[in-house]
Amino acid sequence: MIKSGFDVEDAPSETDDVGASSDTTTDTGAARPAEFDREAVDRLQRSLPETTNLRPAIQKLTSDHVDLLGSFVDGFDSRREFIRWGQRAVILTLGELSGEWVADRAFAGLDLSVLVTSPARERWVDDVEELQPPDRAADMRRGVVATDLTPACSAAVRRLRWSAVEYVSDEDDTLQPDPDVQQHPGMRPSLTEVHERQRWALDRALEGFDSLDALSVWGQRLTEASYAEVPDDLLTRVTVDEAETSRRYLVVSPHDADHGPFFRESFAAEFLLPAFARAARKVAKRAGELAEQETTETTDKRM
Prior knowledge:
- By secondary structure, the chain is mainly alpha-helical.
- It contains eleven helices and no strands.
- It has helices spanning about 40-45, 55-75, 80-90, 100-105, 110-115, 135-160, 190-205, 210-225, 235-240, 245-250, 255-285.
- The protein starts with about 35 loop residues before the first helix and ends in a 17-residue tail after the last helix.
- Mean pLDDT is about 80; it is low at about 1-30.
């Protein structure tokens, strides 16, 4: 399933006149990096006006979005790492990027050949000749940032803009929190809590379980991690209706290396990520805001 910025047929060819050639240089002659140009981005962000941050939650969320999109442009070592990125993305976009969006790409071989940057990308095409050059693949990922990810980030900021606390004080400017020292997405601790529970549930599913009993208890914890958005009958389907498949792939066995990891990744993408995105939307809607000061001694939970 090739969508949006991944459309190979719509990508400019070497003969297309689009204002820039399709090699590794732009019309200004500067090299187009195959990775996110953090040096240029840092220079840009250092030029931001030094105005008072009256709604620091928005600045914090936007900074997290920059990091999120930068990691997407960089690409991923494996399908598994893309799925893990997807879980982080649904939290940071407050559920505006759907879990189905991530799942669609996790099941599309040609998409994965663009997303994965390690030699493992060869497994996602029938012929290595179908692989895009690294700079072209990076430009395709940038296309997805423009068409799909940036709109999701914008929708998240739109959702937060009026619920974000405005810190105004004529007498004490120390009441205005610094966005750079905030620990939580959008300054909402509940989003960090649900992120950590989701990440635990996702990683356990990707690694597999030692027994069916461990799988059953994981299913109960999954309800908590998904804010009860996971299908009610998922555990029944996994442990009863499809018990043989569960024993073979979700419960780790000596023969696990054959198909187990791929099955568990597919299971997580199809069933967990959509529920996680719905949970992020529900939590963000009612989450409270916490302003942390620079002197506060807390464990860094920046995602």
